Amino acid sequence: MSRDTQLKERWEQLVTILSNQFSQGEDLDLDAIIYLIGVQELGKVHNEFKKDEKLNLMHIAICRLLEPYGFYEFDFFDEDGWPHYTVKEALPPLKAGEQSVLMKEAIVSYFLEKELID
Question: Residue 74: beta bridge partners?
Fold first, then answer.
């Protein structure tokens, strides 16, 4: 099985699982899944968040997802329990499609690590 086919199958499996758990019948998109990862990483799953906090949650998720690729490194938790990361290497310029593939790969890896999918 090619790597692209395997990524596509795992991505579809993941979208189905997460959509069934967190959506009202519609498939979650990439941004929604990134947001869920941010909430998971913050560990405050029952909180309601303001708009700016939602953006910060997505930033946390992106940092966590790209950490294994060497782009970010966990630094510390602040007094409110929010994780902070430092940039280790600037992201290369990527086209929109390439960004999407990178994020899907990173998300699939994250959920493989969490043993939600195999």
Answer: 85
